[in-house]
Prior knowledge:
Elements: E1 2-5, H1 10-20, E2 26-29, H2 46-58, E3 64-74, E4 80-81, H3 95-105, E5 115-125, E6 131-142, E7 158-160, E8 165-166, H4 172-178, H5 180-199
Parallel strand pairs: 1-2, 1-3
Antiparallel strand pairs: 3-4, 3-5, 5-6, 6-7, 7-8
Amino acid sequence: MRIVFATGNEGKMREIRAILSDLQVEIVSMKEAGIEADIVEDGTTFEENAVIKAKAVAAYTDDLVLADDSGLEIDALDKAPGIYSARFLGEDTPYTEKNRILIEKLADVPPEKRTARFVCAIAAVLPDKSVEVVRETFEGTIGYAPEGENGFGYDPIFQVPECGCSSATLSPEQKNEMSHRGKALRAMKKVLADYLKQQS
């Protein structure tokens, strides 16, 4: 058995493989598995979208399928971009531009009101087609300018108060320890480890 992750994002796959490595199961992206599912993410929550993605890919394989839906919630913008984080300003718009626009929108917002969080929901469709879902968050604030070269997406504008720097300046190890996806993957790892134990 292997795990197929419903993503084509290489940065995400690196994080996933690092955190799930001790499950000792082969982990491949849907692209590597040769799956081209047409996924319509029309859920209203991160959890719903993660389940939609996982089920869409699970229709093509008997492997264990994982999918995540994650995004940035900015309190001063009524939790936008939220579930539309990847599609904010259009999917083909570079994140340098998305980050610039978000900082612009917050130009008059004082430091104490710039609170934000990354949210990650991960859904698993097990080979028996049962579904498990976990959700975790990574709390922080929005900075005044992009900072750092590590990470991807909104990491350069997301400040981590306890570190005094942006998420994009953290090492991969630090980020996996603290991030929404790192925490959600570890929570899901417990679910999968229990399942694998029952199968052995």
